[in-house]
Amino acid sequence: MYDGVRLELSRRNLLISSAATVAATGVAGSAVAQSSGSHMDYTSKVALTVNGEHRTLDLDNRTTLLDALREHLHLTGTKKGCDHGQCGACTVLVDGKRINSCLTLAVMHEGDEVTTIEGLGQPGNLHPMQAAFVKHDGFQCGYCTPGQICSSVAVLEEIKSNIPSHVTENLNEPSQLTANEVRERMSGNICRCGAYSNILDAISEVGGINA
Fold this sequence. Notes:
Layout: H1 2-36, E1 43-50, E2 53-60, H2 65-72, E3 91-94, E4 97-100, E5 113-115, H3 117-120, H4 128-135, H5 145-160, H6 179-185, H7 196-207
Parallel strand pairs: 1-5
Antiparallel strand pairs: 1-2, 3-4, 3-5
Helix pairs in contact: 4-7
């Protein structure tokens, strides 16, 4: 009987102590929130130039560039694939260089110029790379195509700027526009449908090489 009473009292004390701890934590959290301001402390104004248009967004600091483009600017041509930087479907151009937009925060690109697939060309006025992809059937489902095209445009600029890759044969000479260079540089863009040969044909036509 004595043990039962002691157990009951211990349980009661435990519940009282737990409730007091929760209440104290809540009060402390509220005080911290009041002293630090509102939830807006966790957001920032981000000014970008997107496809030639100046845009200013109020964003949670954790928002990726990909989500800013898709969810806030409704530029859904840029696709969310793996969301881990492994498939390349989210590739866009930032200040002329290609990046995986799922791996970078929008707040890191204050003042940058961002070009998405929508900014490369429009129906009736396609970018040469877009036209080449259509001509050579460089896609099947088309989900990865925006990233493939943005990456393709950047690849040709990389070679023109003499930026070497892992297969560049002579680092002391200008980078050569070859099929092997294109294959290596495009290896980060995955096509689940397997349209790789047609993609290479499209890039080769625009770049002026024989695949």
